Amino acid sequence: RNGDVISAGQLLAELEQDDFLFDRDNGQLLYQQAKNALAESESYLAKLEKAFGQGGISQADVDKAMLDFRVKKAEEQQAAINLRLKEKQLADTKLHSLGDGTVIDITVKEGELVEGGTPVVIISMPRPTIMRKAQNTHAAGGRSCGGHSLSPLTSPSKSWVRIRLDILGISIAYLVVSSF
User: Fold this and answer.
1) For strand 170-177 and strand 5-6, is the pairing parallel, antiparallel, or unpaired?
2) Which terminus of the chain is less hemmed in, N or C, by CB atoms within 10 Å?
3) Could you give phi then psi for residue 64, rounded to 5 degrees?
4) Can you give the C-alpha Rg of the chain in angstroms?
5) Which of 67, 60, 59, 79 is CA-nearest to residue 41?
6) CA-based angle 61:67:68, to the nearest 5?
7) Could you give the CA distance from residue 118 to residue 171 in angstroms, rounded to a whole number?
8) C-alpha to C-alpha distance for 29 and 152, rounded to whole angstroms
């Protein structure tokens, strides 16, 4: 509610997770399938290498199995990366405050659909904690903080700056009050 005092890390907003849970579960299944396929390929390659050592098969057969093993290894690595991405997207469905402050305005109602970039809550913060945590500068002038995009909205005076935090296309606008 407007006027509520909030603490760093406090949950401010949450996206519906159904699609993200489905994507994560699907990613887990694809990763497990890729892991199993890699294990089968590795086992088959070991058998062919043993048979080659005994003179039972040609080098071309071993080379083909080695190529299949490398492809399965790359597929397993890609499935692992995709799973980590899905898990991160699921974790990013929760918006937490980056610092202590006071809710100035809640711009959307619970259950309301919003466009990407729409601020959902505006928070006044007594210290510029966000700016100190910023890590990477992007081409558009934004900054990265904990994997989330920070971009300045306005800077009308030296005593305050307004920042928008975008996570999965929705935003929190922070009003950071301080003397710079």
Assistant:
1) unpaired
2) N
3) -65, -45
4) 25
5) 67
6) 90
7) 5
8) 40
81 sits in which H/E element: helix 59-91
Residue of 174, 122, 132 lying closest to 152 (CA atoms): 174
Residue length, the chain?
A: 180
Query: Rounded CA gap, 138 and 166, in Å?
Result: 13
DSSP 6-70: E-TT-EEEE---HHHHHHHHHHHHHHHHHHHHHHHHHHHHHHHHHHHHTTSS-HHHHHHHHHHHH
Tokens of 15: 């996206």
Tens digits of residue pLDDT in 90-125? 988 888 888 888 888 888 888 887 777 777 888 887
The set of residues, in sequence order, having a beta carbon less than 8 Å from that of 6 and lying 6+ positions away, is: 12, 97, 100, 101, 102, 103, 123
Residue 107 to residues 64, 130, 142: CA-CA distances in angstroms?
Answer: 60, 21, 22
- Write down the H helix ranges in 92-180: 129-133
